[in-house]
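Please predict the structure of the following assembly.
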Amino acid sequence: MHLVKFHRNLPKFKFWTKRRYSHALLTDENEYTEAPEYPPILDMSLQGRKLRERQIVHEKIQKLNTVEEKQIALNMPRYYGWKCVMLNEDKIPYNALPLVKCYTRTHFIPSSSLPDVYSETASLADLVVKQTKSLIEDIIILESEAVKHNYVAEQEKPEEQQKEDMITKNIVKQINRIICNKLSDKASHILSSQADYEPRHEAFWFVGGLDVPHTVRNQRKKHKWLRDQLEEPIDRPVQYIGTPLLTLRSNLPLKPLLPYVEATNPDFKVPKFSFVPESVGYHTQHRHGTNIPGFWTGDCDEFGLLSYHGRGHISVRNPSFGLEDNVEALHSQALKASFGWLLGQANYQGFTTYNDITYPLVTQTIITNGKLWSFYVYQMNTIAMHNEQMDENPKHNICFGTKPLQLYDTIENGQVKGFNEEVLKMLVQLYLNAPEERDHEMKPFLGKEEQIIADIEDDEKRRWLESRYKHLVSNRPKHYLMPEIYLWERIYKIKHNTRFFEAKRRFFERDINPFKRRLDEHLPPYIPKVLRPYPRCRKKFENTYYPKV
Amino acid sequence: MSTRWYPIYQRGNPQLRVFLPNFWMKMVRPHPKQLPNIVHFQCSMEMTKYDIKNYLEKIYNIPVVDVRTKITLGRFRKDYGQGYIVKDDDVKYAYIVLPKDMTFKFPEIFDSKKNDEEENMKSLDEAKKNFSDYLEKNKDRTDVPSWFSI
């Protein structure tokens, strides 16, 4: 039987062994050059080869056509998601600023006023402040004192925090409405902008050059070839999740605060914070990395103007942290929120954490509780900070920010006392900062015709990518549970080999690491026989369109 | 505070008794590379975060900003000589955050001991060398006792 099979295959083997020419190949006359041309010398060490593998993946991601495919490609190496360091907008541990500065690669410049760029609109802002002052005073009185709120508190957050954020949300909505109404005839960009209430802001990136957690060290100790690089720094995936109270978006980006060459200025160098984030109060979670700036791809208003954030979490912070640390917590919240939003926007322009942005992006962030207002202006110059880029990338992001400023002193007998017009003026100036068309290409890493998956002509591919992308970023639990090592197995099978006579069927006995499973390592949906095309079709499984990276 | 059972006093027993508390904290060397304002302790399993904070503030006057605790699983090991597997006790760790301008360095108590060890090793090496010299010298008369020499 086997011989028959072999006989059938013989012609195929002949094809490979066949001699094609009866004489030696004709030598090319142009083979010789004046100067010898050598192939490039490659680093053939383990690290060198791994680095080249990674760089090839980064190039492949860069060459993908659509935004969504790039996002899926970022998640391709992990079926169960990356083990992300979670940066929440409103959970800020003690002394958070050094870590946030390093992870967002931001140089923070505290100041008492807005940067000089805003002085052009000062006179117009004064006029608008005069018109809106009394209206805003009314709103503050109404929303702070006259409204009785009926609400159901969530379980996860403290009630005090939710109450403060809810009142703030109403004040902010009203103030935004008043200022937009007054400005719509004076500033055309306000009229055309879009406002989002409580949008979903998520951002995902890699931070490299960090200390090795002891679990990774222990793993490295097991392999002989890794023993000399126990302390080699690693990449940590980072996921930011935040919900602003209100954001404004426009179809054009804001003007850069500083010229782009300033990004490489060594004065803005950020000190490195390489300690393991779990040791300073952050936690990790297995999840797919998501980049969502509050809208889906295809929206025409894809650049942020400003975002309002609540500060209810400050009121429930541990009092032993002190007032000074609360101000730093606000700064770190602003850095996280600004960077997170801009990174989401940059991803929609076709950049990823592996493919650095080619032009600066700017946003304005306001953190408020209705009474205290802090203003931040953030310029993002770089998003590449993974292991290879952390020490070599000369660019840094820059953020200007104020301390919390009081809009008014107190509310007494239905009257606002000590209203500070300067604060309102700063707020109006942020609104008056007009976006501008850039004279360079905005989406250099996206395709010419296909920029988002909605542009794809092939119906089946488009539908598949759309549903896969939305399902991926929803981060819903898997249909099958994650593989688990039960405690009895850890004790009696892994730590102590007391059950050596049993068949080795579990993944850890067969040297399979389930967390290294790739996203596309699963059976595609089965096509039942009745649904297969007539007359005979052997295709049992549906097509998948995972990006090839 | 103590929940220990002490023996009922019988006549003739010693009168002085020390009532040890259930609460104890033991400072341990932190993992390599830790922020200088974070101190690691092992503490008794019954202590809550508030207990830990009060313990350090009230007894030792240490300004505690934040306390994080975790309980680590005890080690599983084969009982010596018996072969069955036993488990060590779990340990509660407390990570104390001091104000950010304060630093703490775990003291090197056993520096001198390390030096002693080195000296011991030196003398041991010397003895080994003497012995090998002696063997070398007497290799052609192995049946002669060591005391029989000039």
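Residues 43 and 125 of chain B are 42 Å apart (CA to CA). The mean pLDDT of chain B is 88.
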